[in-house]
Amino acid sequence: MTTPRNKRREAFLLGNEAVVEGALAAGCSFYAGYPITPSTEIMECMAKRLPHVPDGVFIQMEDEIASMGAIIGGSLAGRKVMTATSGPGFSLMQEQIGYAAMTETPLVLVNVMRGGASTGLPTSPGQGDVQQARWGAHGDHPIIVLSATDVPECVEMAVTAFNFAEKYRTPVILLLDEITAHTREKISLPEPGDFEIVSRLTPTMPPEWYKPFEETMRGVPPMPPIGSGYRFHVTGLTHDAQGFPTSRPEEVRALTERQFRKIDRFFEDIQLVEHVETADAEVVVIAYGCVARSARLAVRQAREAGVRAGLLVLKTLYPFPRRHVEPLLRSTRLAVVPELNMGQLSREVKRVNEGHTTVRTINRIDGQIITPSQILKEIA
Amino acid sequence: MAEITQLIHHYLRHNKKFPLVFCPGCGHGIVLGSLVRSVHALGLAKDNVVIVAGIGCSGRIAAYVDFNTVHTTHGRALTVATGIKMANPKLTVIAVMGDGDAFSIGGNHLIHAARRNIGVTALVLNNFIYGMTGGQCSSTTPEGAYSHTSPMGQLESAFDIVELTRAAGAAGVSRGTVFHVKELDALLTDALTRPGFNLVEALTPCFTQYGRGNGFKSAVEMFRWLKNSCLPLERYAKLEDPGGKIPIGSFVRRDVPGLETRYAAMCQGLRAKKGGAA
Ligand SMILES: Cc1ncc(C[n+]2csc(CCOP(=O)(O)OP(=O)(O)O)c2C)c(N)n1
Ligand code: SF4
Asked: With an 8 Å Cβ cutoff, is B273 touching chain A?
């Protein structure tokens, strides 16, 4: 049962600390990582908390590649696992993200974006990893990318990330920005029952009947922990339903198609957005992360000034929530996409726009935030 | 004979994955045999054994054995093995890697696995070359040896796997060869029973990619070379002039608990303290 409101434990937390609260509420019991600003508080907090969680494991690895390897191992052994990083570390993790997608290993990867390319601006916000999150790993594979705008949402989206990872047997990337990660806000700590918690399906059939990569009703095969009596082969090579390498065209196609289908079929479940006064909007702002907070105020001010403005906050960035974006592009005369990069999400908006409306971008890459007035200027 | 057949049926995924991908005369199949015999000798349950392999000819070993098998990315086997061992310390986790896998691309992970003393057995198949990609030099290619990327002879010096792993702090380090099979079985069996990080280097000939280009006439000649140049550590130590001879045997045996054990003890300590305070 949920704790009554007045008995709730409250805390004044950073976005990064809130991610940890969400992860632990979702059942995370395994963290491996390598420190990097501005994600480090996630790791430090996990180092303190996990030894107190039953069977909890925290390990600092030698680099981000190793961190990904360790959580993949932890996940194969049946744990709910997480790592966190920022841009340079995220780049190092790409090969293993592809491995996790290919082997359908659930995991959560938090990337707190910093500004700039390379080591860039370690303590300034940026949103420059949006396309890397989608396309950073080589080869065709689906991916789920989420984001959060404030501290309470960090809790919620961390839980959602674990639920999606487990439900769809896939890596899930939670993209935050430095502002969201380093803003301190009051939240009520998650209590059991606050969130629906999903765990991966494990097989019920006898081991000799089990096929680890078989087509199922949902497209997501059950996954037993290593050591539980179901012995099978896991490989990053393209494999058949039994898990053994194959290059037979029909098996290759079947695997890739199923991996896409298991995500495609559940767009409605996965593509999360928040509508703010979009019903009658003639101008819509499409934003995510800390920029969505500025946009919220800008839209309110525009309304006060008599402009019918609305805001679509994207909580899911990929699979791109076209089903929410497209109708707005059809019903408004202007869409504004403010971002802390040179235009990474606006590419997606333009892709689905197909001439319906005018798309204007606001791009800031100097390590500073996009202010409400900057957005207001474009919409009012 | 019947017993061997039974063993084959018990441990190998014979109906699925044979014949082996290895070239005729490759030593990797012998290491595979040694691995199976060691597990059998110790009476380990198949469900509790995990083989984590890297990429390379050596990495393909994983597909043939009926254990829990994970074929990871090039160089990263030890990272995944570490995750599995930390998540479930009851499992016997064996990382099977090539020399390129373990000491070139995965060198950082190897020294840290040794330093960390994670309870994983590392089985390194050292053929002095990159087999799978067609014969480029690796970090164990001897100076002067030829490969496709050292066509004028290797200028860089080779890692001594035993010395490097010892210096990094491993609990156990040994070296065997696929010619000295009984000894290799013994070294591997020993490594599998010991706590902490234990590495077994197995010298294994690759005639296709290394031998042919370096003056060996056949795979058999490479086995003969192993026979003549490798000698037990005790005898090696007595040589006045080692002159290119290679010592084999057990080099390091330290009894220190693995990281997973120390971590569990720390957690237990925390719980006891909390319980005591309440
Ligand atoms: C990141 C990455 N780089 C390079 C490769 C290509 N590659 C595959 S196997 C291999 C070398 C294998 O040599 P070794 O590890 O010594 O094993 P062997 O084949 O000799 O048993 C390389 C470089 C790869 N798969 N992944
Ligand atoms: S290339 Fe060398 S290591 Fe690979 S299978 Fe052939 S002989 Fe063995």
From this structure: no
